[in-house]
Amino acid sequence: MKRSQPKSSTSATQSSVPGVGHNSDAVVKLQLYVSKYNGFRKEEGELYVQRCALVMEAEKELSPKLFEEFLAHVHLPRKSSNFRKARAVAKAATRLLGISDRLPDSKSTIYELAQLDETTFSSLVEDEVITPTVTAEHIRMKSVADGEGKVEKCVAHIDATPLGHGERLVLMKELKRLASEMGATLRAPKFLEKREKRA
């Protein structure tokens, strides 16, 4: 009694794709499209990092007024989360572009990678965790497992008692702007919040 031979990996690929069968030309065409698609994904991730770096370069080279005009032209409000993320990605641009062949096309995943410290980032690179298909959730879970997920608590208190009513409102508005820009949380006294709404 003859034993059936196990299917090769190529045969498995062929049989898993409807209409492919054992047509070698069809398999080659399939692989070509897969390769092209993954190539575009790589380019998207790389271009996103380069765009973020360009934003920070523009901030450095242009006057504040011209930089605001630049942000308006590229539809990137300074107070938006996208601007905050662009800053983080730009700071990590060198190391991210150093693994451009592994970069995912997801902006949120690239942002998660940008926030990692050098040690954790290098560890993920060496363990081949970073791939074009890795997700932001996977990176977060891996970071927590490695101890990166622990966040040191940092709370600051501001005493505005010596300030007049108008000065307090100005201070709160400015702190709100900075908190929004940096991704921090601001808690102001309720009576001050009500007065600001009336103003």
Average per-residue pLDDT, rounded, comes to: 79
The outline comes out as elongated
Indicate the radius of gyration in whole angstroms: 25 Å
Q: Are there runs of 5+ residues with pLDDT below 50, and where?
A: 1-16
Largest sheet: none
Query: Share of helix among residues?
Result: 55-70%
Number of helices: 10
How many β-strand stretches? Answer: 0
Terminal CA distance:
92 Å
Count of individual domains? 2
Order of helices and strands: HHHHHHHHHH
Output the structural class: mainly alpha
Assembly state: single chain
Content of β-strand: under 5%
Structural features, described:
The chain is an all-alpha fold. It has helices spanning 9-16, 24-61, 64-73, 81-91, 93-97, 107-115, 118-126, 136-145, 165-182, 190-198. Helix 4 (81-91) crosses helix 6 (107-115).
